[in-house]
Amino acid sequence: MTRVRGDRGTRPAGAVAGLAAACAGLAVAELAAAFVRPEAAPLTAVGGAVVDRTPAAVREWAVRVFGTADKPVLTLGTVLLLAVLAATAGILALRRPRAGCALAASVGLLGAVAALGRPGAGPVDALPSLAGGAVAAAVLYALAATLRRPRPAAGRPGGTWPLDRRAFGRLLAATLAASAAAGYAGRRLGAHGAAGATASRADLVLPPPAVPAPPVPAGADLRVPGLGPFLTPARDFYRVDTALVVPRVDADAWRLDIRGEGVTRPLALTLPELLARPLVEHDITLCCVSNEVGGPYVGNARWLGVRLADLLREAGVRPPSRGGPADQLVARSVDGMTIGTPVEAVMDGREALLAVGMNGAPLPFAHGFPVRMVVPGLYGYVSACKWLRELRLTTFDAYDAYWVRRSWAREAPVKTQSRIDTPRPFSQRPAGPVAVAGVAWAQHRGIARVEVRADGGPWRDARLGAADGVDTWRQWVWPWEARPGRHTLEVRATDGRGEVQPERRTGTLPDGATGWHTVTVDVRA
């Protein structure tokens, strides 16, 4: 049989050629992005575009299934899709070189379109993906040419020729080596670009608070085995956001602008100017609206920052209750995220902060360094903007922030919730005394009571840890005399206003989950 170009025997090599071309294109794009900005890299741009266009219900499913690993899973899925397209382009290039190379280049074009659609993007953001697509197409054409090039073989009848493995192998090795070098250079340049931000954080010395938080009350931390600490370490604090690449902001270059409706004196502040103002220290529990009943996306920390209400008053802002024209404060982060917060809530006397510190240290990069918003009593998606760069006063009727455009409620006060942390679901315990313990929260209202029951029996009061104000969670514990068998434990809380946590289970959309947390435990004789 006469072998023709694109015969099945060369298809695996064609797929390899396509994958190698994709590696070269990605490496060049990463290198180019180091000179533009990290968000312009194709994987980041495409992944961000996918996040932006994912329906809220699908995103909640991803958070529920993958947790904080949802971003690596998204990146892996993007890479796998790219690999399939690259292999297809390589096989296509064996028979139709121009079509295969056009497919490779179109992937770069897709990345450019995604990059241009990212918040804060400019024309140069398209360059990394376009350069990567061009390189991928050129490399694919060269590799495919070695697979199409005739090399007559002595003694082979019918004018057939074997695959020119040497030429293909040499070019493939050179491609992979060059890709590795370009990728390494891109990572090094990116790390060098972030070095200034890292150094600025390391050099930052936070001033002492003008209003320090009192010590955590004795008895607030019940120290029950299986129950976490009262103050959540920064490394364990939950992180739920849309940033595929954590912004690393140089504190020396940071600036905050405050403007908009009702602002009679616009402000532009640098970090030293912000730190020169009186700092307030306050313990606040934050909770993500994506937190299912009994979920992990809640944490408690000691925050240090400037009172946001003081800054707004300095800018001439009045809340709607005092005749102010703006009812929404839109916070914008360096990566373009927008979060809308009720002006009334920010200025009603609660400790709404522009936070610069967390648990006695500058904010970690993952939690918003150098400045973020923290507003007790509101879910994070309407209050906790990280990597803050702008505050704009407007109205809810005039502007929908990022999450509101994706089916979430405009305003979202935290709902009363309680959680059983120990014993764990479906764990086994020996019969006898068991400490059932957990946390309950209703920020800005406080927790007045926690009740637990077993197997649908009567509710029993749990012992509460000491209260550290109304803006933090409270730990609780209930002594249970466990008998052999399978048992169901339930918990409910009552907030400081006397309202009991509702039993009815609802999902997180559009403004937070409700329901009693339930745990099933097997008790051995």
Estimate the helix proportion, in percent: 25-40%
Please compute the radius of gyration using only Cα atoms.
29 Å
Distance between the termini: 75 Å
Provide a count of the helices: 10
Secondary structural class: alpha+beta
Tell me the β content.
Answer: 15-25%
Which outline best applies?
globular
List the uncertain runs: 1-6, 155-162
Q: Biggest sheet, in brief?
A: 5 strands, mixed
Secondary-structure element string: HHHHHHHEEHEEHEEHEEEEEEEEEEEEE
**What multimeric state do the chains show?**
single chain
List keywords for this structure.
525 residues; alpha+beta; five-stranded mixed beta sheet; five-stranded antiparallel beta sheet; 10 helices; 33% helix; globular; disordered N terminus
Describe this structure in words.
- With 525 residues, this protein is an alpha+beta fold.
- The chain contains 10 helices and 19 strands.
- The chain has helices at residues 11-36, 42-53, 56-66, 70-95, 97-116, 127-148, 165-203, 271-275, 308-314, 343-346; strands at residues 255-260, 267-270, 280-287, 298-307, 328-333, 338-342, 353-358, 361-362, 372-374, 388-394, 417-422, 428-430, 432-441, 447-454, 460-461, 463-464, 474-482, 485-495, 517-524.
- It has a 5-stranded mixed sheet.
- Helix 4 packs antiparallel against helix 5.
- The longest helix is centred in the middle third of the chain and has 39 residues, at 165-203.
- The model is unreliable at 1-6 and 155-162 (pLDDT under 50).
